[in-house]
Design a protein that fits this description.
It contains six helices and four strands. The protein is α+β, with helices and mostly antiparallel strands. It holds the Pfam family FGE-sulfatase.
């Protein structure tokens, strides 16, 4: 239900910007992006440590399970997760729900950043399965996600 209201809010914002007199609305890129970001429910994650990585026992279990599933992953793929170690993260915020294509489209239109691309460089939104407005955006680099937030 929250995703629906967020999607409706983005559509409303787009419709208002199309039909209002340009003198009546703020047209700076930051105001459009700010409107999108304000509609997103952000959750604060407090700072702290967590244990990252896997134990040898976990790796063996993952590897054996992958063989049962006819996976082509080799044992070294799992060994990259060792050793377990503590990692400290500063406090940060994350959206409660995935960022949608509609929300991200407003961002790229205002900032002139490139559209999401697949790992071979293909235009993801050219694929009708991946360009639906209310589905989560994919093909975004870490740098684009950082710029969005």
């Amino acid at each position: 239900l929250r995703r629906y209201f967020c999607f409706v809010g983005v559509c409303w914002l787009l419709l208002v910007s199309l039909f209002c007199d340009a003198d009546q609305i703020e047209t700076s890129p930051s105001s459009a992006i700010r409107s999108v970001l304000d509609m997103i429910e952000w959750i604060g994650i407090s700072d702290g440590e967590f244990i990252m990585g896997s134990t040898e026992e976990h790796i063996e279990n993952f590897y054996q399970e992958s063989k049962l599933r006819s996976s082509m992953l080799e044992r070294p793929s799992f060994e990259a997760e060792t050793p377990q170690h503590k990692v400290y993260l500063s406090a940060y915020q994350i959206s409660r729900h995935e960022i949608t294509n509609a929300q991200y489209r407003v961002f790229i239109n205002q900032t002139k950043r490139p559209k999401p691309r697949g790992y071979k460089g293909e235009d993801i939104w050219a694929n009708s399965i991946l360009n639906v407005d209310n589905q989560p955006v994919v093909g975004v680099t870490w740098f684009d996600a950082y710029a969005f937030a």
